[in-house]
Design brief:
The protein is of the alpha+beta class. The protein has a single domain, classed as Orthogonal Bundle (Cytochrome p450), CATH 1.10.630. It is 46% helix and 10% strand. The chain is built from 19 helices and 14 strands. A five-stranded mixed beta sheet has the order 2-3-11-8-4. Helix 15 crosses helix 17 and helix 17 crosses helix 19. The two termini are 29 Å apart.
Length: 424
């Protein structure tokens, strides 16, 4: 995948799955089978391509309606009046809608007007040097070793420390925050029971309650204290001339906690998982660091760490040729939409020199990921600094990376480190 005149594309061969509907055999909760299927999370591209080519929008037992093509996914993401993000779209055991994820227009606009400037590109670019220093400090901790757990030593601590510092939460409590986050996002993995199982529901509810309790206690402690962090900003912020309420600050904090500690980690796991298995492609990154911004976008498109986005239909209609009924669960399978040739020519090829890359890895429409600019910066810095100092690496022999479903991260990433250049 050489940048420049030659496309250098790598074409993957896909096998069509024997039966897409088999994924619904073990769990009848709406949305659960696609969101919780470990086999799909490990190797989603063959199924994605099959769905795009054969069934761009369809009704699936145990899921609802699935939008697999780019056109169908766009229709879901860009029409919040028909496909709502309200609390019935996904069950996270929350007391109130998370802000801004579970808020639809018109209220959604006022919250994004407050939050978007805090994550604007110009503001995020000021973090490049601190993030670079942190990346190198983390690498310093294992640069002399022959092996490392990439997840424990890099993909978790890098974005987590950046986020906790921004929000104003103590770095020493990261293990507690990760437990909370995992209990909300992937309780079935933590508990070892499927989504909808009583034990899984109890654990998810307990973690949700603990997040509310944490932020409520923190607001008590910070009531008369102002610091240069996001929490300090929220305590004095106004929306349309009115101060944020205590509940609104808690609901924003809940949303930021579960998103800020997970999605960039998942993107790092997916990106480095791909590069660790494809040394020729990795070599292009090492030899052409100027290509890293486009590499980041192409890996986001190909891997799509957040596999799908959930919505609920508000009225009757059609999605392609598939009838939609009010109350239907609707899943925009953005990983599949990112492999649609109708929007991305030769979508089954990874091309570091792809000029137009309108992928949906950060979602789309008004609910597009609030932290996308920060995520892109962290990914660019991580790939640049890592490959400058650790150009050769591979997954440890005999290890199959086990990606969690829904949001594709790994619990452990055993990695062998090859020869490293001498530091000047």
């Amino acid at each position: 995948m050489t940048p420049g005149a030659s496309p250098g594309a790598t074409k993957r061969s896909f096998r069509h799955p024997a039966s897409v509907r088999r994924m619904s055999d073990t769990d009848d909760r709406p949305g659960a089978p696609l969101a919780a299927d470990p086999a799909l999370a490990r190797n989603p591209q063959p199924t994605y391509r099959s769905l795009v080519e054969t069934t761009p929008a369809f009704r699936m037992d145990g899921v609802g309606v699935v939008a697999a093509s780019r056109a169908a996914a766009d229709a879901v993401l860009r029409h919040p009046d028909i496909f709502s993000s309200n609390m019935s779209a996904i069950d996270l055991k929350t007391r109130r809608p998370l802000i801004p994820m579970s808020i639809d227009p018109p209220a959604h606009r006022k919250y994004r007007k407050l939050l978007d400037p805090l994550f604007a590109p110009q503001r995020m670019n000021l973090l490049e040097d601190p993030i670079s220093r942190l990346a190198n400090e983390l690498i310093d901790g294992f640069i002399e070793d022959d092996a490392v757990d990439f997840a424990a030593r890099f993909s978790v601590p890098l974005p987590s420390q950046v986020f906790l510092t921004m929000l104003g939460l103590p770095l020493g409590e990261l293990p507690r925050f990760l437990e909370m986050k995992d209990g909300i996002i992937r309780p079935q993995v933590v508990v070892g029971q499927p989504l909808g199982h009583p034990d899984t529901d109890r654990h998810q509810q307990a973690m949700a309650d603990s997040i509310y309790a944490y932020f409520e206690k923190l607001l008590d402690e910070r009531a008369d204290i102002r610091r240069d962090d996001l929490l300090g900003h929220f305590l004095d912020a106004e929306v349309e001339g009115e101060r944020l309420t205590r509940d609104e600050i808690v609901d924003i904090g809940f949303q930021l906690l579960i998103a800020g500690l997970d999605t960039v980690t998942a993107a790092l796991d997916c990106s480095f998982g791909y590069l660790a298995h494809h040394p020729d492609d990795r070599r292009q990154v090492v030899e052409h660091p100027e290509s890293i911004p486009s590499v980041v976008e192409e890996l986001l498109r190909w891997e799509t760490p957040v596999m799908a986005v959930a919505r609920v239909a508000t009225r009757e209609g059609e999605l392609g040729d598939c009838p939609i009924h009010a109350g239907d669960q609707v899943l925009a399978l953005i990983g599949a939409a990112n492999l649609d040739d109708d929007d991305c020519p030769d979508a089954d090829e990874l091309r570091w020199d792809r000029e137009a890359n309108r992928h949906l890895a950060f979602g789309g429409g008004i609910h597009r990921c609030l932290g996308s600019h920060l995520a892109r910066l962290e990914l660019r810095v991580a790939l640049r600094e890592w490959h400058r100092r650790v150009p050769d690496y591979s997954v440890s022999p005999g290890v199959d990376l086990d990606y969690s479903p829904g949001i594709r991260s790994v619990d452990t990433f055993p990695m062998l480190l090859g020869p490293r250049p001498e530091r000047p």
